[in-house]
Amino acid sequence: GDSVTQMEGPVTLSEEAFLTINCTYTATGYPSLFWYVQYPGEGLQLLLKATKADDKGSNKGFEATYRKETTSFHLEKGSVQVSDSAVYFCALSRSGGGADGLTFGKGTHLIIQP
Amino acid sequence: NAGVTQTPKFQVLKTGQSMTLQCAQDMNHEYMSWYRQDPGMGLRLIHYSVGAGITDQGEVPNGYNVSRSTTEDFPLRLLSAAPSQTSVYFCASSRAPGEQYFGPGTRLTVT
After folding, report:
1. Helices (H), strands (E): how many in chain B?
2. Is the CB of A99 less than 8 angstroms away from the CB of B31?
3. CA distance A42 to chain B (A)
4. Which of A61, A112, B3, B66 is deepest in the core (most CB within 10 A)?
């Protein structure tokens, strides 16, 4: 079945550091890929998405590129801020109009220190 | 727009009790889903619906029932609560598969 693997946390960085959170997936067909962010005590918010190979999703300084050859969708940001501290989830949705929800990774807790 | 709303925010149940978690959305989305979030497990899909009158099982459906009589509402019923159902429950909706909007969650404790 489908699966998403992302690096375990917590990941602790200093403010203005470069961020990479790795995500790889296993899925049949051509899934859409997503990054969601969860701030403390809140629900998940869509951060960015990519729907086909070589697409780059971007939002709020975060970027991720859909790499079909390596089945990866790594999240990057050039200069993190304290306000980026949150849990980040990589997720996929099967293609072909499938509506059966999302398959999530286990989440990566990011802590940014001033 | 209120988006996706969930009630209650917190609930404590005794083993064997039943209850319904409410979920509503005002965005006219066709797709709705229920997930549970457990430490170290990420989110797992319980049930989902692609429209009024249509529901299907996700990854972890046992012990839960759903129905979808209207586009707006998608309640989740726990038939006989068990401690293993202690979790945070999220409802989500979307216009298209994959890009989902999440509610704030319900934290359920079963003793």
Report:
1. 0, 11
2. yes
3. 5
4. B66
Q: Is the dihedral of CA A23, A104, B30, A47 positive or negative?
A: negative
Does the pLDDT at position A97 exceed 60? no
Q: Do residues A56 and A104 lie in contact, with contact meaning Cβ atoms separated by under 8 Å? A: no
Which 8-state DSSP code applies to residue B73?
Answer: B
Q: Which residues contact B62 (CB under 8 A, 6 or more apart)?
A: none
Which two structure tokens, joined as six digits, stand for B54?
Answer: 């249509």
pLDDT at B102: 92
* B94 has a pLDDT exceeding 50: yes
**Which 64-103 residues of chain A touch chain B by CB within 8 A?**
89, 93-94, 97-103
Structure tokens at B56: 């299907």
Cβ neighbourhood burial of A99 (10 Å; 0-12, 13-18, 19+): buried
| pLDDT tens digits for range A39-77 | 988 889 999 999 899 999 999 999 999 999 999 999 999
Residues 59-88 in B contacting A (C-alpha not used; CB under 8 Å): none
For residue B40, which residues of chain A lie inside 8 Å, CB to CB? Answer: 106
Strands across the sheet with A19-21, in order? A19-21, A75-77, A62-65, A56-59
